[in-house]
Amino acid sequence: MSTYKNLIGKNVKVLSTDPDNDAAEGQIWYNSTSGVFKDLIVGEAFSSAAPIGTARYTLGVAGTQTAGLLFAGDTLPGPSALTEEYNGVGWANGGSMSTARRSVGGFGTQTAAVVTGGNPGPSVTTATEEYNGSSWTGGGAIGTGRRNIGSAGILTAGLAIGGFTGTAQSTSVEHYNGTSWTAGGAFPSGVSSNSGMGTQTAALSVGGNPGQQTINFKYDGSSWTALSPTNTVRANTQSGGDSASAVIMGGYAPSVSTATETWDGTNWTTSSATLATAKTQMGTGPVGSGTASFGAGGYTAPGKTATTEEYNSNINTITNAAWSAGNNMNTGRTSTAGFANKDDLVIAGGFISTPSPADADTKNLVEEYNGSSWTAVTAMPTNRASSSGCGASQTSGMVSGGIHPNQTTSVEYDGTNWTSGGDVPAVSRMAAHCGTVPAALRCGGAGNPGPAINQTIEYNGSSWTAVNNMPHAEYGHMLVGTQTAAVFSGGHNAPTKSNLYEYDGTNWSTSPASLVTAINNNAGAAANGTQTAAMWMLGAGGTTAAQIYNGTTVELTASLGTARYNVNCGGGGTSAAAIVGGGDGDTDATEEFVGGTSVATASTLTTS
User: Fewest C-beta atoms under 10 Å: which of 240, 460, 545, 591?
Assistant: First the structure.
């Protein structure tokens, strides 16, 4: 009888813990801790990821799953010049193109991409632009103006394959060298809406119009060779990979599809992994590899979409960031103050705004959250709403300011009782607050009624001291971090409501980063985390958007389930684990956020 060593050439390894890398794929080992034989087997799956900032279809795409790029497209009602960048977690705004257009060709990387052709209006264009990671500049015009172009390659060695000239599908193939286009080997037949992938000298062109097709051709830099066709007729699929390993997803097949196929260099195989939502026109260039790609935006009946789905084929079980419903608060209300973390949150005060006038119906109610349920605890000494809170834990926090008559007072909480703290120097509601009880930071706010102020004050555990003013008078904004490392954004008065401003314990400065979605009139949205790991959510009129800041860039992450605003101001966790409760309409609803994970999953071998 053959043994494992006879077949494989080595003995079964004995390990105390399971390996967690691709090198272990297909290998067998004995886990001495659990006493079982195990192996790692590749699995294919799609997972929902952060949506793009602006829903659109007929996009240009480039990059990888962790450094992706989307540009151009149709927003219905018209062509777009917008660019968005993906880091594998969320989307951030990039520099806008010079010319808005849709149905473009695109290829390259996140910091060296090309867009060409497309429709800026009713006619096709020959214009080409190049992206350097922050801005677009003009490149060499493509020889034949067209749209829906199959694309592949990099900025200095790109391919434009086929496309629709406005009257017919084209056989034109052109090479780009980073400066100009030259003619390559003509495609065997006129084609458009085909998916390209690979390099300028080893590319695939798959499917396309007219009539959706199963065609699959390989290019060697000068001529095309027919290879095994796809299993389903296809056009307008999103692709990833190269001529040796590739994936195509969605598209018209012949209706809008969820189907996925993978390429091993010889044959296409229908994958068991499918898109959660049928969609097409996500882009005709490649993103990522044959084992790690994504499809973002696109068209799904009845129109444009902002959804992103990641495709992965590896040994890991991947769970994307997500919000889920938590247990409801005991009393629904709006404009509350909050402090501490996801699993030990305190929410205090607020309005019960209906049917009474808001200012006349402030509350002193306090509830604690333990990670699963809410408990009513000792009420604050006085009613207040539109106040702000800060604190490191459920046993050490404070609430300050708020709607009449408590605009200058602050109170401290020790987990059981409330005691008076130092009075703030200026009358203020809807100020921003962060830090701890002995080292708090507070900025901005407004009278009731009254103008906004630009005051910054620091707390030492007993009294407040005025320090350097914030960049502009503001209220209804958000502040995250500590007394010596904080960042604020948004508000009612912000000249640019997507700006971020950082505080170093002495001075304020404008951050080079900006919010993907501007926060306007948020009236006290949830703010969580530190200066380099912050989460902001919600805004004027209510939105589902949630954004993460890492100290350098801001990205969209998973959207909340329900749009809301005027929720707890201050506290609620970090950019990896957060909670939000209450909001306008006196809701009692709670949502919890958990960041994404990627974990290698070992299978236990059995004799069955």
Answer: 460
